[in-house]
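Per your request, structure below.
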């Protein structure tokens, strides 16, 4: 009976982690939209470069989060 409780606890932790990762994916997606909007509106070369770095960083984060969700069986 103890093993069943432990399995439920592990499943609950995985569900919690999956939800947290999905939330992170959504937040990152919104941040990427904002970064693309900024990239489209700035004219200063330094700000353009900054926007490119920000977009690349957000893409890397999104890829990481997506990989983690898939590893948990949620994708």
């Amino acid at each position: 009976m103890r093993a069943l409780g432990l399995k439920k606890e592990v499943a609950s932790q995985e569900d919690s982690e999956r939800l947290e990762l999905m939330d992170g994916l959504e937040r990152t997606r919104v941040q990427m939209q904002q970064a693309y909007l900024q990239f489209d509106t700035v004219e200063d070369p330094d700000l353009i470069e900054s926007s490119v770095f920000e977009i690349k960083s957000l893409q890397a984060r999104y890829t990481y989060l997506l990989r983690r969700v898939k590893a948990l069986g949620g994708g």
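Residues 2-71 form one domain.

Regards,
D.
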